[in-house]
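Anyone? Bumping this.
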Amino acid sequence: MFETSLCQILFYVLAALAVLCAAGVVAYRNPVNSAMCMAVCFAMVAAIFFGMGAQFLGIVQLIVYAGAILVLFLFVVMMLDIHDEGQSRGSYIHAAIGVLVAGVFAGLVIKVSINLPGAHDNTCPAITLCESAGELLIGDARKVSPAQTAAPQYGGCLPELSAAAAARLENPAISAADAAKATSIPDVKLLGKCLYTYYNIPFVILGFALLSGTVGAVALARKIRKD
Amino acid sequence: MIPLAHYLILSGILFSIGLAGVLIRKNIIVVFMCLEMMLTASNVALVAFSRAQGTAGVPVYDAQVLSLFITGIAAAEVAIGLALIVAMFRARRTVESSALNSLKD
């Protein structure tokens, strides 16, 4: 499977680049360099989104983060003309404590991720977790229950996307033969359906939050007259 | 295919680097960039979960909608935060967090 292995190699390369650029954000003394590293990091994350089949979110990530937010950061960095960069880093003890805390957190996340229930015995982690919670068997859920055997095979990997299943979800009345003819998943269509039906009111509230954020930013950043 | 755990590890590492930046750096603008990176890391985890849950071959789009909301709120947050930084620079002529050591000047 050439395509699958290519996807895998791309993911690991992109992930390594994203982590490198993220480290660059912290390491560079000049905020402009940090902002550029952040842009590359977000572009890599967007590419990983594309690889996961979330095309719309990848585009949003590129436009909002690598486009709008980055430009805002750069404008502010250039507007404020920060001159004194020598004192921008604290003492070594301060840095060591920060690295220690973050390292402990990273180790915790990695340990939990590797030991996800169901990661080694071909079941979905969410289903396994629910069942384990029901039977108080977290960490030792080797007992196979009927629901677990009925759960789809998972194998710790993300399941393949199926265009036929997407076509059936989009139009339940479609025949199996027509569904099998579908070649691609209408990602934006399905996401929009979810967004504008179940999450319509939160979406409107998000719009108000953005509006009030814009108004608040203008109110905060305007020059206050002293008279 | 790539295991879900690897996506979660990538997300955790990105989040930890952001956390380290928030703790280490004194420049508030860079601290703010690191905060954005932590939000992005959570987005990676959410999208990976949306794929992993959709065992029928279609992602669960609730997670992706949540990720979209996070992006939108992050945009509003950046606007307000940068306005606050500009206001702080006007008042103190610095963006170092260590310079914020008095309640009233």
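Late reply, but here is one note on the structure posted above: Chain A touches chain B through 100 residues (CB under 8 Å).
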